[in-house]
């Protein structure tokens, strides 16, 4: 199998709001859009974010057409503290404060306007025991 691109598709009530949030706070740019659909790309993420309005008649499979509950969109960054400060200053809603897990994962979480949880993480040395 040869994979040529990667995307994550999220069902949300307001695709334009989530797209605007990802553009403002995460540096994504719109590649295409239509009624109920926005596709974003990022020059460094290696991943497209696609937002679909919940309830689209064309969504397949219909059984999975609800909102993206329980999903985390996670991006690894090089300076988590600087990103945290920047996003706080921009007014992004931080829902889980900056913290470091015993295994060396330093992270925080935000919520976009549709409640999609976006986590930024940086792997650091595990703290002393």
TrEMBL record:
Q: Which SUPFAM superfamilies match?
A: Glyoxalase/Bleomycin resistance protein/Dihydroxybiphenyl dioxygenase (SSF54593)
Task: Tell me the InterPro entries matching this sequence.
Answer: Glyas_Bleomycin-R_OHBP_Dase, Glyas_Fos-R_dOase_dom, VOC_core
List, alphabetically, the Pfam families matched. Glyoxalase (PF00903)
Under PROSITE patterns, the record lists: VOC
* VOC domain sequence ranges: 4-123
Q: What is this protein called?
A: Glyoxalase
